Amino acid sequence: MKYYIGLDGGGTKTHCVLANEKKEKVHECFGGPANFLMLGTEPVSQTLYSLVKECLQKGNIRYGELESITIGATGAGRKIDADRLESEFRKFCQSKEFKPRNVFVDSDARIALEGAFSGRPGCIMIAGTGSILYGKDVKGRLYRVGGFGRFIGDEGSGYMIGKKGLVAVARAFDGRGETTIMQNLLLQTHNINTPEELISEIYKNNFDIASFAPLVLQAANQGDVTARKILEEECDELLLHLAAIKRKLLLNTIEVSLVGSLISNPNFFSNLLHERVKSKMPEIKITAPENNPAMGAVLYSINKLAGLI
User: Fold this and answer.
1) Per the confidence metrics, is the pTM higher than 0.90?
2) Domains and CATH numbers, the chain
């Protein structure tokens, strides 16, 4: 029996799945973040190796039975970066006296796309810490929209929503903006109540900006006008992503699967996105993913070795 491991390495956690050649899940586990562009390749390789080792031990699988490992990682969208992670991961494995037969590295969006439609044409929209839209046409050609990172992109993401929420709080502190419920939520959750405290947390204590996004959603649920305006703006940004991919794919109807807690779970933001897609873009059909991204990485392995991608 041949076995395959798929890893979905995100900005906050990594999901690992071990499956057999029949595409049956044998074991799954979770670990820390895998954004190697921010954390470095060595600690990320340690995280990935630990998860692979756990899967093999729990599944009672020998190294020789493992056909391949596919890593879908945040930050691996460019080939030069993907190749670097692959090389460093192989070196780390070899330092542990493990030489994996096949290692593939691609973006987290790519494996999510493979999993969502089991290789068929479609689009995957990811809105977690960051954001990107990935699509595949009937000829298997790949297209992407967004994915430029938090400095010049990530519209509709947790980072952008969190940042805009904190900007609104800063403006409210100064009197440059309206008072917002988000001020009280920031005080309740982080004990921040002054401009000085906010500045210190952001610039000295490495405040997790994306973690503020759920509080923006909470404020919007409570009727906060400022929070709702932020979410409406970011929803429109995601609609621009969809309009752009539609022009690239040239399909009459496009299936789109949503990934990331911001848009895949019921909340003010995801509900707004569904409503606006339905009313403004009827040619877009939002569908549930058939498989999670980690399982998508397994399917990627199988299809890659079969020469299908």
Assistant:
1) no
2) 3-116+292-305 (3.30.420.40), 120-289 (3.30.420.40)
